[in-house]
Amino acid sequence: MNALRRHRELERIWSSRPGWRGKLTTVNNNDIGLMFVFVATAYFVIGGILAMLIRSQLASPHSAFMGPDVYNQVFTMHGTIMMFLFAIPLFEGLTMHVLPRMLGTRDMAFPRLSAFGLWCYVFGGSILIFALLAGVAPDSGWFMYPPLASTLGSPGVNADFWLIGITFVEISAISAAVEIVTTVLLYRAPGMSLEKLPIFAWYMLVVAVMILTAFPPLILGSILLELERAFGMPFFQVAQGGDSLLWQHLFWIFAHPEVYIIFLPGAAVISTVLPVMARTTLLGYRWVVVATVALGILSFGLWVHHMFTTGLPHMGLAFFSAASTLVAVPTGIQIFAWIGTLWKGRPEMHLPMLWIVAFFATFVLGGLTGVMVAIVPFNWQTHDTYFIVAHFHYVLVGGFVFPMLAGLYYWLPHFTGRKRYFKTGETAFWLVVLGFHGTFLLLHWAGLLGMRRRIDTVEAGSGWELINLLASIGGFAMAIGFALVILDVAVNVAVSTRSRRNPWRAGTLEWAALSPSPSYNMASLPEIRSRYPLYDDPELPARIARGEGYLGEPRDGLRENLAVDISSGRPRCLVIFPTNSVLPIIMAAVTGGLFVGMLIKAYWLVPVSLVGMAVIATWWAWTLGSGEDQDPRPVGNGLVLPLASELKRPPGWWGSLFLLLADVVFMGSLLFGYAFLWTVAPNWPPPAYLKPGLLGPVLVLGGAALSIGGIRLAQRALRHDEKPWPGLLLNFAGLVSLGGAAATVLARTVHDAHAFDATLWVIAGYVIFHVIVAVLMTMFLTLRAVVGYLSSRRIGEANIVGLWSDYAAVVALLGLGAAWLPGAFT
Amino acid sequence: MSDILRISLPLTVWLASFSAVYGLQGIACSQHWAAAGLDVATARVALTAAWIAALAVQVAFVFVLGSPRFASRSLFVRTVSRILAAAGLVTTLWTLFPVVTTSVCI
Q1: Domain ranges of chain A
Q2: In chain A, what residues touch B93 (CB-CB under 8 Å)?
Q3: N or C: which end of chain A has fewer CB within 10 A?
Q4: pLDDT tens sequence across A182-229
Q5: In the CATH scheme, what architecture does the domain A685-824 have?
Q6: Strand partners, A573
Q7: What is the ipTM of this complex?
Q8: Per-residue pLDDT tens for A601-649?
Q9: Which positions 57-96 of B are in contact with A (Cβ < 8 Å)?
Q10: pTM of the model
């Protein structure tokens, strides 16, 4: 087969259907990635327009441009859109598009999950934009502190739109994170061991794990606040045992790592693009990996520095002040690695490099003001002033937007196959950078003069008028600059001339693919021997196109890919990927029904949607796997590999494991919230703790033993080609018993009586939810066994069900144990 | 996966111990501590003991990740995990030293 025929055949197998319907059913990483980027850009434009409305309002004293009610909605939505609907989806889209080629693989790990995440993002974001257009947008600030965001301060539906819409969007972030972790760890070109990973992949691995561990506390907080608003469960009402500080903890346990979740993709782009612009390789690769991992974990130990003014004891302040100063070290390691890379290379000032220089000038300043606000006395002085607003804009725009623009211009020839002809980008660069500093450098000063954030008007004679006028002028210059960037990209995409492959002479693998990238990404999967495969072997793109790597011969119209060993990159199995499907968009729409039902208080829609989701999930999973044992297949270069469906731990098992990591953090956050209220909340203890009695503990202990033992019995039977029914039956009985134990908690407490009761309801609900998931999975497994989808070789699905079943037992033991603990000792 | 654990464990354990010590300080300053008949001096002892235990775990990581039995076969992973173990030790030392230098509940 020659290269052209191979290309056509692979395109036929991997591409989306033609026309607009193809966009609704595509699961291809290139389509999904670009759609993420397009939608995120649209939200950026909306968020930018809101920013200009803010600057218009503050440009003159006592401005009548907006009333306070509208202004509150505008600044809340500006922050919300930029953080949730722009920044995270933008880098997710970029990653989904570029990462598979960088890793030398053919798609993301779970293509239908990518599409599901995209549609959740589009639908969830639309809910928020609808609220904005309807004039009922959230208006309590992007961090939604109760009691301002509870029914006391926000009796309308405004806060509900935030809590429900953002939780919907977070499904997208979690699903993308599971995708990215699994892809980086399992789907790489053969030979790409951990030490040969492109530095971009290391960054995104850390970021994805951070998403999995940072988002659950916010999801929990949003659920608790919505439950309080909708059903009067008083988690944040002091009079009934709640505490509004609980929200602040849950929010900032998410939101401080969120800052690094946004910065690290920017750093990933810098570490990828800067060495190419400097005509060299990254200095201190190992140290950058160390710094990235350290920054990712350290960022979780800083959340309380957002709460320094809440009256904490000195020791608490000192813990978090010390931790906050420490993050400057790994950040500094990266900065010095980049400076060293520039020093050892020969930098060329192309447009991506200009944006990198802007990044240095801006982010270093933002980082230094970050160290300033880590110091407690300074923090007390500047808390909730424009100094903070200026600081985080320096960090987020300098550390994320500028690097992303560097990345945009760097990969533009790769995305489009065209070289930039029109030079509007340089003009846009100067407008954005000068406009940005003209706005936010000055606003530091306003903050130091005492200008509080979120005020809707500037007082005449306050001394802030001129600063705000100049800042507004700078803001509009920046906005014109961003508009020019979009125009520049659009014009160059539309009418520029064809580019040659790899115009920057980069060494990473994405440049080995055709530009624009074909749907299959890699015509064959190369054997990798270094971090910069194209520097070692300039002929590699041609050899890949000639099919000299693995899977070079398309077979049976199947979407074939390889999974590798996590550490060594040694090929482990052949994976058959799913084809285009309407399931993801239907699943997202039905999931949307769940959220809309809660939002408009049509609660009948919630169980209907849940049933719909269960049906679609069953349909989704049913299409996977194989009805018979299959022989290992040749994958090229003399290698023969088993199918993924015949591994004990198939990729789906790993995906479940990473999803469960998020679930574990959710459970941990719930127990933390419970312990926090027990320790700190003023109106504790409650009138009465729940006594465990006999029935509940017997049910939970017996249920856990039956469930854990039963699934193991079923797995053992399958391993010996015996019938798994007894084990599955025991597992089913055990799960039902666990659900019964949780039901006893619900039956003996009143959901809105006290924060203790409300917390127990959430714990019991969480247990019941996992029991239902495990029961459905056990029923699915039973059906699969009936129709012959399980055998001693095809045991992976049983192991996946085992994970979820065990987790249900563990959460029942831990959660219900915690619920009964205070009552057992009083 | 064991290589990923070698890389991620030391600082993850720091995070767990840091959060646990902060939680212990919260409990020590709550009504429950006094109700159990304990005073601030006991709280200082408990917090210091927790800090020393956290340091001991980090010291163990430094040695374990450098030992032939538990170290990775990959030179890259071995180097990165050792640096991160050292970072975990320094981080534990730096972020929890307030247990001996500042007031507990004021």
Answers
A1: 347-499, 685-824
A2: none
A3: C
A4: 999 999 999 999 999 999 999 999 999 999 999 999 999 999 999 999
A5: Up-down Bundle (1.20)
A6: A563
A7: 0.97
A8: 999 999 999 999 999 999 999 998 888 889 999 999 899 999 998 999 9
A9: 72, 74-77, 79-80, 83-84, 87, 91, 94-96
A10: 0.96
